[in-house]
Amino acid sequence: MNAFNYQEYQALLSSRGMVGLDLETTGINKKIEYERPTSAAILEYSADLDNPEIIMNDKCRLPYHILPDAGALNITNINPLELMNERLSLFELVSKIALYLKSHPEKIIATYNGASYDLVILRHSFFSSLYNPYMLSNASEDRIHIDLYNIAQAIYCFEPEKISFHKDVTGKLILKQALLAVANGIDPGDAHAAMDDVKVLLKLARLFETNTP
């Protein structure tokens, strides 16, 4: 078995580039396949993470048959009346995401809990918009997805002293992105706003890369 070569993976990150992705969604059903994006942000990982390149930061109006959950709108601070008047339709937002990802298969995609949330919602949204639902798992394109939630779990298991973790009053570990950010001196911004969430996840990625290479 070959030894892990950190420099090799650092070179891969530099050559391919990485983007952070986050969705805010309708929250209309406990079954995730029925959720749809209300906003999406994709930002480029760069040296200046306070002012990263904004590839996408859009909201969309929903079809009349989709009613977003009031609780989800409250959490994401989205005004439902303003949402009805957004420039992009749901189909146009999904198309914009799909076309970007389709034209940049080399980009490494970073999310926080995206493997079980954002990318699942994207898969079903692609399907309902007549795009390839398995675009992000196409082995022939050698796509790479990094879920920082899983990285945080691994750090806690193997090198818990390398970063700070949030625990509640009972001592239970909580790995919510905003709480992990605060524990490590990172401003969480407007939590549950797609663009701020992506800025935070990219800063967490830098923290992980620096402290636990």
Features:
213 residues; alpha/beta; Nucleotidyltransferase, domain 5; five-stranded mixed β-sheet; two-stranded antiparallel sheet; 7 strands; 39% helix; 16% strand
Account of the 3D structure:
This protein has eight helices and seven strands, in the order H-E-E-E-H-H-H-E-H-E-H-E-E-H-H. Helix 6 packs parallel to helix 8 (194-211) and helix 7 crosses helix 8. The strands form two sheets. The chain has a five-stranded mixed sheet with strand order 3-2-1-4-5, sandwiched between helices. A two-stranded antiparallel sheet has the order 6-7. The two termini are 20 Å apart. It is globular. The protein is of the alpha/beta class and 213 residues long. It has a single domain (6-211), classed as Nucleotidyltransferase, domain 5 (2-Layer Sandwich).
